[in-house]
Specification:
alpha+beta; five-stranded mixed sheet; 12 helices; about 30% helix; about 10% strand; globular
Length: about 400
């Protein structure tokens, strides 16, 4: 069998994506190797009947979810005298009766396992083999994808285009696809949800030809005013961690990985992604990442004040979870020791340098229309419907 990091064949693109590259980035494949450097997670094999359910039209939940759906988020669970729900032509009682008459399929063993993990973690962040349903965050009360009920998990999975990509298109970009569209096994990953993680401490890292060449602020849709002055130290911590724990372990020649840094300088691996346009390049472009021109020369205007010195790695203080203070403190840098391998070339790090540098986030393309977001203001559905009618009346009067 061809090794995972075999060079491309003659005439093949140097960055050509192969099935092995994709499979190496599958959560159940990389997590056992890096578990001590990542967040608590549980991997659950999925039966084919559940995969078929995810691909079926509609969002029909199993009967056991009926009690869970009666929450403050459910417009059907409002007081009978709630005027907001009795305006207009929508009969919510009829909608509720229809929903109760239609029962979804049942997966007793899987449902029990998911509930047990939720109870153990106190809240979970779900994903499939590769992708999390970030594009469906509008579908549950918690827009940060924190699931506290089985209904939350299933609603996210059923509402997400990202999940459909995992199920049907994982190998579409592979040069050795040979008709394969899916892995041999699908898994549901439930990660312990740490609600107070700071977006400013999340970074995406790009490895080309087994060298860490670039690091980008993960959430490019936000500006953190203290981040530009801290970016050099962030870069040092990430580069040292990669050289010590990832470089000689992960087998792809080209790949992308996401990390989180706590205030003590400990690095947590969030995920691995394939190299190429299917992965968001954030503050870089794929043209420059794949160019033979030195990336630092191409990025000088963006990175003029970056600190170019490197630091080698040592063990950082072991903590069970990332620090969650309101404002992250400056990172503590590791110190050199004799067993550390020679330092690698310094990667280019980019962060949003000012409010004008904020970029739209890729996942927003698949969420609810911006017009709805703009007028909903986080209200309940009844109030939201009334606001829609009010806006419609205003538009009619203006014409």
């Amino acid at each position: 069998m061809e090794p995972d990091n075999a060079p491309p064949t003659e005439g093949e693109d140097h960055f050509a994506l192969r099935q092995a590259d994709v499979l190496n980035c599958m959560f159940s494949n990389w997590y056992p190797q890096f578990q001590r450097h990542s967040f608590a997670s549980t991997v659950i094999p999925l039966p084919q009947t559940f995969v078929d359910y995810l691909l079926a039209d509609g969002v029909l939940l199993p009967p056991s979810c009926a009690a869970e759906t009666h929450s403050e988020f459910n417009p059907l669970n409002q007081p009978e005298d709630d005027a907001d729900l009795r305006t207009g032509d929508v009969d919510w009682n009829a909608v509720e009766n229809e929903a109760q008459d239609a029962e979804g399929p049942s997966f007793p063993e899987l449902e029990s396992t998911i509930r047990s993990v939720i109870a153990e973690y106190g809240g979970v962040y779900p994903k499939l083999n590769w992708s999390a349903p970030r594009d469906a965050s509008w579908a549950i009360p918690s827009t940060i994808l924190r699931c506290t009920r089985l209904a939350d998990v299933l609603t996210l999975l059923k509402s997400s285009d990202f999940i459909v990509h995992d199920l049907c298109h994982a190998f579409d970009d592979c040069v050795d696809q040979e008709g394969r569209t899916r892995p041999d096994l699908f898994t549901l990953v439930l990660r312990k949800h740490l609600a107070e993680l700071h977006h400013c401490n999340e970074f995406r890292c790009f490895v080309r030809d087994r060298q860490l060449i670039a690091i980008s602020q993960r959430h490019s849709g936000a500006f953190f005013e203290f981040l530009p002055e801290e970016k050099a130290r962030h870069c040092d911590c990430i580069a040292a961690f990669w050289a010590q724990h990832i470089r000689d372990v992960f087998s792809n020649n080209h790949y992308v990985f996401d990390v989180y840094l706590n205030k003590s300088g400990r690095v947590f691996i969030v995920d691995f992604n394939v190299w190429g346009p299917s992965t968001d390049s954030l503050l870089f472009t794929w043209d420059e990442l794949q160019s033979s021109a030195p990336l630092r020369e191409r990025a000088q205007e963006v990175d003029t004040d970056a600190d170019t010195k490197t630091h080698t790695d040592t063990d950082t203080p072991e903590t069970d979870t990332p620090d969650t203070n309101d404002r992250p403190a400056p990172l503590a840098l590791p110190h050199a020791h004799a067993s550390t391998p020679p330092p690698a070339p310094v990667p280019v790090i980019r962060v949003v340098e000012g409010p004008q540098g904020v970029q739209p986030e890729y996942a927003m393309e698949s969420r609810v229309p911006l017009e709805i977001v703009g007028i909903s203001l986080g209200e309940g559905l009844g109030a939201f419907i009334e606001r829609c009618k009010e806006q419609q009346r205003e538009e009619v009067s203006e014409t």
